[in-house]
């Protein structure tokens, strides 16, 4: 029987000692209907500012951490922050308008001119743009390292290193990095570790449990899960989150999440682990089908025995998630032909949606080069790579669509 003695706490502030299960907290944590006319769903507060009965009350709200104005405070958004923090096992959380806004807020708040940031050599393409083109303009040195060999970290860290940042699973190849091994190396040199856990979501992987200090999510992906809004989140210790909130959000980026988006993301979050189970089961089935297909040269899916990160994935992830990458013997041109034959899967960037989304990074990169000459594929991403975000459709329909598209190319 579930222990319900924590139900009193769940509705208040984050309580990590709660015995309640992940799904119960994903549905109830930090929302007390008694405070909101007994509404079962959290109201959406569409207000830009807050009025006060007296100047003294106004002062008290300011002392509470800028609860004066909706850039820094909104009751709907606060529920989402507390719920996400609880699900990640973090002391505090901050939500922002997009995943990129979360990354910008993180690095521009914690690093200054002359500081150094160590990153894994492969990252989401716009994070690459930020670290290669954005941060150096502000005098922040970025040091790319192959973190699949955590031993390489020690030589990359100097006394100016402030943060180690990486994704796992890594976009777009779904490579796996060992969170515990990297955190151990970084902490030995007193450097903090931030993990972009977007590809997994807290239903499958909680990096803080493996020693990371901070977690970043694009809420646009699995956590919202329905492809109808953008959002980002940062989760970690209360002191760092206070800095990210008080300087980062308030005046460095001002990248506030809309309360309507917070509502949608709270709604999506309720079904997160159900969805992740289906995404993962279908992706594994599709990965196995592709691995056995004569037109397919390679498949990368963390829960395939052939994946180089299989053991680490099994250690730090509950399931493999819905993201996989594969390449065809027919290469770049074959990828384009195969994608054009698809009838059910949607050709689109983004991921973590109920709809299956498929995309060919090399095609988009070539198209982008017409407007940005220096555009290039991230390290480790080949011209043949196809990335697939497996959705929630019937898996047999997805397999049939892929198989008809893979007819001799
Ligand atoms: N991190 C990862 C791993 C991503 O895949 C993305 C977007 O695709 C982002 C961050 C950026 O998130 P957003 O699109 O919400 O800005």
From TrEMBL:
PROSITE patterns in the record: CYS_MET_METAB_PP
Ranges annotated as spanning the membrane: none
Any one cellular-component term (Gene Ontology): cytoplasm
Keywords: Lyase, Plasmid, Pyridoxal phosphate
Enzyme class: lyase
Record has Zinc as a keyword: no
Gene3D superfamilies: Aspartate Aminotransferase, domain 1, Type I PLP-dependent aspartate aminotransferase-like (Major domain)
Cofactor: pyridoxal 5'-phosphate
Single GO MF annotation: methionine gamma-lyase activity
Domain of life where this protein originates: Bacteria
InterPro entries, per database record: Cys/Met-Metab_PyrdxlP-dep_enz (IPR000277), Cys_met_metab_PP (IPR054542), PyrdxlP-dep_Trfase (IPR015424), PyrdxlP-dep_Trfase_major (IPR015421), PyrdxlP-dep_Trfase_small (IPR015422)
GO BP annotations listed: transsulfuration
EC number: 4.4.1.11
Family, per entry: Belongs to the trans-sulfuration enzymes family.
Record-given protein name: Methionine gamma-lyase
Organism name: Sinorhizobium americanum
